[in-house]
Amino acid sequence: MQIYQEKVTRGIAFRLSALVLSVVGLIFVAMSAATYFMAREALLKNAEQNARTQAQALVQRIEARLAPISRVPLGLAYELGDDGLSDEGILRRQRQMLLDNPEIFGTAAAYEPFGRHPQQEFFAPYTFRAPLGITHINLGGPGYRYHAMDWYQIPRELGQTIWSEPYFDEGGGNTLMATCSVPFYQGQGAGHGEGRHVAGVVTADVSLDWLKRLVSSVNVLETGYAWLITRNGTYVTHPEPGVAFNETIFSRAEEAGDLDLRRIGQDMVRGGSKLVETKSLHTGKPGFLVYAPLPSTGWSLGVFSPRDELLADVNRLALVSAGLGGGGFLLLAALTAVIARGITRPLRRLCLAAREVAGGRLDAPLPEVASRDEVFELAEAFAHMQESLKEHIRDLTLATATRERIQSELRIASEIQLGILPKTFPPLPRHAEFDLFASLTPAREVGGDFYDFFPCGPDCFCFLIGDVSGKGVPAAFYMAVSRTLIKAVAESVAGAGQRRGADRHHSPLEAANLGEIQRRIPNPGHILARANNGLAEDNESCMFVTVFCAVLDFASGEVHYASAGHNPPVLLRAGARPEYLPTHGDPVAGAMTGIAFTTDTLTLNPGDALALYTDGVTEAMNPVQELYGEARLLEHLAEHDGLDVRAACQALAADVHAFASGAEQSDDITMLVLRYNGPSTANGPDTANGAATDNSSTDDSTTENRTRPGPDTT
Amino acid sequence: MECTGCKQGAFYVLSVAGRMDALTSQGFETECLARLDAGDTRIVVDLSALEYISSAGLRSILAAAKKLKAVGGDLAFCGLTGIVAEVFTVSGFAKLLPVYATRVEALARS
Question: Domain residue spans in chain B?
Answer without folding.
Answer: 2-105
